[in-house]
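dude i think i finally got it to work??
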Amino acid sequence: MRGYVRDGRLKAVRIGKQYRISDADLEEFTGHPVAASARETAPRQRHVEVSSIVQIDAINPEAMGRLTTTVMAAVGGRSSGDTPLRIETVYDEERASLKIIVLGDLGTVADLFKLIDSLAEVR
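look at this
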């Protein structure tokens, strides 16, 4: 295939180390219709996801344990049909700082932020 492209017999666009060939150019070259590609036949669905880091400073290990246990229980109690929600926590004992890394859909993450806010007593 690259030989045909290099010889100029098959039109292509080089992107990095790969060649991209349009369906129309491939049909012209082969003389056969090209099946519709997946991007043309599959309808696109909008997906919105939030990725965020919540940082809570001046939190002792006991409070951090209670907060992370409650947040993880809330996330773990979701049904299998719910949209995915991913949570990671990192605690720096020396700085007494907790980071909660959250990835999920807008509504679910907003609800989780409300829970974290009430547990952390941030006012």
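The helical segments are 2-7, 23-30, 38-41, 61-76, 106-120.
im so relieved honestly
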